[in-house]
């Protein structure tokens, strides 16, 4: 079963939205651009945010099972996906790719 490399490629912050709507939390996202995680057997990597994992889990599991080609050719590399977490204040875009 291929491992899936998960790379944080972009992190955006919306301080105006945070100031207006967010209750500050000590559990705010700590993912950094360029940070890499590896999923073994389609499992959540240690240290990866649970909310981010919920957004990408079906794609990681499909890639780990040898699948891909999501949405009929969405990605240039059919064994990859670009997924964003669902944090509306600090969304992170993750590049997922099957690696042997």
Structure summary:
With 100 residues, this protein is α+β, with helices and mostly antiparallel strands. It contains two helices and four strands. It has one domain.
Order of helices and strands: EHEHEE
Q: Please count the beta strands (DSSP E, at least 2 residues each).
A: 4
Beta fraction of the residues? 25-35%
Q: Measure the end-to-end span.
A: 8 Å
What does this structure look like?
With about 100 residues, the chain is α+β, with helices and mostly antiparallel strands. It has one domain (about 5-100). Helix content is about 20%, strand content about 25%. The protein has helices at about 15-20, 50-65, and strands spanning about 5-10, 35-40, 80-85, 90-100. A four-stranded antiparallel sheet has the order 2-1-4-3, with helices on one face. The chain is elongated, with a radius of gyration of 14 Å.
Helix and strand layout, with pairings?
Blueprint lengths: L2 E9 L3 H7 L14 E4 L10 H15 L15 E5 L7 E8 L1
Antiparallel strand pairs: 1-2, 1-4, 3-4
Keywords:
four-stranded antiparallel beta sheet, alpha+beta, 100 residues, 4 strands
